[in-house]
Amino acid sequence: MKRRQSLIHYKTIAFASTIAGAVLLWAGPASAEARFTDLQYSKWAEDSINYMANRGTVAGYGNGQFKPEGRVTRAQAAAFLVRELYPEQQPDTKQTYSDVSTSYPFYREISIAARNGLTGGFPDGTFHPDAPITRAETAALLTRAYELTNGNQSTAGLSDTATHWAAEPIRTMSSNGLIGGYSDGTFRPNQSVSRAEFTVFMTRVIRFERAAAIEAHDWDKLISYMTVSEQVGQMLMPDIRQYNGKATTTVNDGIKSNLHDQNLGGLIIFDKNIIDAKQLTTFTHDLQAEAGDIPLFLGIDQEGGVVKRIPGGTNLPGQMALGAAGDASLAEAAARLTGEELKALGLQVNFAPVLDINSNPDNPIIGMRSFSSNPDLVTKLGLSTIRGLQQSGVVAAVKHFPGHGDTTVDSHLGLPVLNHTRERLDSVELKPFKAAIGSGVEMIMTAHIAFPAVDNDHVTSLKDGSSVPIPATLSKKVLTGLLRGELGYEGVIISDAFTMEAIADHFGENQAVVRAAQAGVDIILMPQDSASAHQALVQAVKNGSLLEASVHDSVKRILELKAKYGLFDPQESLSTQLGALSKVVGSNAHRAVETEIAEKAVTVLASRNSAGPDLIQAGDRVVIAAADEEQAKQLQKQLTQAGSSMSLKTDIAIIGQANTNALLNNADYVIAASYQFRNVASQFDWSGTQGIIDYLNGKSKRYALLSLGNPYEMLYVDDVRSGLAVYGKQEPNTLAGIKVLLGQLEPKGVLPVTLEQ
Q: What is the pTM of this model?
């Protein structure tokens, strides 16, 4: 019998016909919210009973009753195994045993069990369906059903089994640690088995087989032991920012319920989940401990720069700063140290790098998150970043395929459409993704953007009834046709967040989740309602709208990637993890790389006679003009510290306040800080910045326009005579700019974007 070959199927919950009397009511699995109420004297078996109930293999009698001490009949034992191993098979139409008519409540299961060699009858052609099954018969039945072989554990001590007809299967079970004897050294093979005992025996065997599959990296075998709920659960990675109105920073009841009820394959961590490095490490450790035998993918957005999460970590100057520095080795070093810190914190997936080419100054969401507007530079630095993350043992999830750089709509807020020709997509947007695939990238995030040149299909919007194009995340032509087919990508496809309005408004949560899986998405990121998304996927598999083979392929890709990055390896102890944090997270060596990037990135935007920006001189009264006080104070503090030997006097002016010009008038030097991000540059209010520049030019003041965000000021602010771009308002970036203005550092960055409207 080649049962294992036939196990590559998808386990669904089969329902028998209504059964009256004392036999089992097959009403489906016991949910996590409705555990059995009569297990108070069977606590030793409670975990197994709930486990098998959740698998849809056993059920109770209604009203929360499981009756754990009740005897298991031969018919019921056959039913348990068939529901577990062959749930979709149909019975023979011809009566199998003389005492099991086709109208018998368990005829289906007994017929299927006999056909597959799980059970046998007696010489007279009977089955004795209502006879209680013994411990010996249970051992024989499970050994045969799961094709168990002898293990390496001692079988000594079972004094009453040596000459028993079931001695060999009992020895096989015992040598694998699946059964044991009583305190008097006996096994009592002829003793009948209770419902609790039989459930425990089955649970042990299933978990043993799953463990063997994991150890052998036999993912097909492991999937064969996974329920549909478990399989589609691997395809979900929700956020867990709040529970009962409070930020989630520990493993609470809500997380436990979601992990077990939805069999989740991963979670995304946000700043709301983080207090400090020690707490985060404890949290991720506890999450993995709660996960069971299939570990979680724990992901985070740690792009560096404006998108950062690591508490006390080396958050780095950002991707556009790396683009200005233009140094591939620095990009690799930045990614490697980022990966080292993430791994120390218990995180395995970084949703980075951004491979979008920011060719449109009006892009409201990418901007300085991109390396450049140059496809070649994005490709070079993107590949280095992928390599650095992989070297540190962290999955690089590149984004946003097929490219989010040339849009004027934020897909968090609407549905962008990119109307470029296919030739343009190939030469610009797709170029870094093609290179990443060629270099072995293992996870690609989709964009909620429509690309009519690839897929021009439309659907009716649930929001307003209009005709809307299909975004890449939901497009089979984009994901299966282009990404997997044309580009030959074999790794994991993960969606962008499903909370984004480009998806949520037009397509509806459940429909979009199923449509994404049908299109080729392996992992749904941040469904708005993970329980509803999970149920939608389960139902889609059951009704055939989501192919079982497709789910199998997705889960196998996920499991293979988890194994490749060591997630199935034993976890280090929490004390070991915590002890290593200070040596890794925010270490001096990492901070040195951060400083080097920031200093190499500083770029001259404007200068008088190509001589660089105006410099601050000793004894100057320096006014720092910024849109908000916090930013101004940060610059003031850094200027005071870096220029401590120059006898500087400093003031702060908030752009738009009444006394701004009076402060500027008394200044010898002005730092005019400008920050534009997360909005359309051409629609941004530049009037305050322009007013300051005009006033300073009119007074012949020395100054520097200090660009802290997207470096597009020169498109919208006229007659700037001295200016620098530092590509971020975080401290490493601003300090590097201050050093240049003090004459302590030479600006060597090259503007990585084209200033064209």
A: 0.92
